[in-house]
Structures are given as structure tokens and as C-alpha cells.
Specification:
single chain, MYOD Basic-Helix-Loop-Helix Domain, subunit B, 2 helices, 87% helix, elongated, Spo0E-like, Spo0E-like_sf
Amino acid sequence: MNNGVKKEFLLFRIKVKRIIMYKKADRFGFTHPSTVKCSHELDDLLNRFQGICA
């Protein structure tokens, strides 16, 4: 998989994870363990994306 495809795939996953996180935060609150876990997963995806772009 080339970097262009990896970037697009990661961007898609980031968008989806962000939507899921906001929905969890709306339902459970920002400090709920489920929301925090989702936030950490989003951070991981963002770090991977940044690593590809660097």
C-alpha cells in the first residue's frame, strides 16, 4: 500500500473515529471511560497519520 492510499485510509478512519467519539461524549459525557478510550484511539490514528506525513 503506497503512502497516498495509506493517508486516505487513515483520514477516513480518523473521520469515523471522531464522529463516534463525539456521539459517545454526547451520550455518556467527555469523562466516561468509553469516550476516553475512543479519544485515545483517535490520538493513535492521528499520530500514525502524522508519522506518514513527516
